[in-house]
Amino acid sequence: MNWAVLFEPGNLMLYLKGMWATFYMLAGLLFFGGIAGLLFALMLTSRSKVLQKMAGAFTYFVRGTPLLIQIYLIYYGIAQLAWVQALWDTVWPITYFKSALFCAMLAFSINHAGYLAEILAGAIRDTNPGEVQAGYAMGMSRWQVMRRIILPSALRRALPPYSNEVMQMMHGTSLASTVPALFEITAAAQKINRDYYLTFEAFLFAAALYLVLTFAMMGLFRLAERHYTAYLQVRSN
């Protein structure tokens, strides 16, 4: 085993570059996927059967197919269509499909939105009916009750399962290594393996980085959960 190679400045920079790309993709998918997930959660819990079925079909597809397949469908499927490539120099937003990063981020965001929508929808449905009725009794509209009572309460209850989903998505970013021109932690390990034939060392080091990131994020979520869900804790006299 030759661990010294991994700690050479050039190779360490590869892993640091991969970590930065991982954070960048994670932040992007959480932002865009979070917005889409909230919208689909509202559709799932709306009174409209049409919106419920549309959102249900979306989440069924996302949760029923592997993330890797979704990446392939966008990057090797949609982005490689002849009519898309004919328009991606002139027509917005098709221009974005020229970017491998955009294709991967789109797949990650869609996947995150599908799972987040079901998490939030479940938390919304679990809202205490008394809180909702109290809001209506105060003269609030349905949207005001949703914005002031239901969503804040649901978001707090959704925090524990949401933290697990974030961890899964961080690990899922490793699949970006299957897309050419994208470089993250797993891609850095693959390059080290190709250059030095150090399979065990390269991927074990990558696993260690993922473990460090996972435990750091778990700690942050634990603090957030203790703060925002303290009212759910059983307190002994």
Report what the structure shows.
- By secondary structure, the chain is mostly helical.
- It has a single domain, classed as MetI-like fold, CATH 1.10.3720.
- Helices cover 75% and strands 0% of the residues.
- It comes from Corticibacter populi.
- Keywords: Cell inner membrane, Cell membrane, Membrane, Transmembrane, Transmembrane helix, Transport.
- Belongs to the binding-protein-dependent transport system permease family. HisMQ subfamily.
Q: What is the compact description of this entry?
A:
With 237 residues, the chain is mostly helical.
Topology:
Elements: H1 9-44, H2 49-64, H3 67-77, H4 82-87, H5 100-125, H6 129-137, H7 142-172, H8 185-196, H9 199-228
Helix pairs in contact: 1-2, 1-5, 1-8, 2-5, 3-5, 5-7, 6-7, 7-9, 8-9
The stretches of 5 or more residues where confidence is low (pLDDT under 50) are none
- At the first level of CATH, the class is Mainly Alpha
Number of H/I helices? 9
Distance between the termini: 57 Å
Q: Which structural category do the helix and sheet elements fall into?
A: mainly alpha
Please give the radius of gyration in angstroms: 21 Å
- In the CATH hierarchy, what is the superfamily? MetI-like
What's the structural domain tally? 1
CATH topology: MetI-like fold
* Percent of sequence in beta strands: under 5%
Average residue-wise pLDDT: 87
Q: Which range best describes the helical content: under 10%, 10-25%, 25-40%, 40-55%, 55-70% or over 70%? A: over 70%
Q: What CATH architecture would you give? A: Orthogonal Bundle
Which sequence of SSEs, written as H and E, runs from N to C? Answer: HHHHHHHHH
Can you tell me the overall shape? flat
What can be said about the biggest beta sheet? none
Count of β-strands = 0
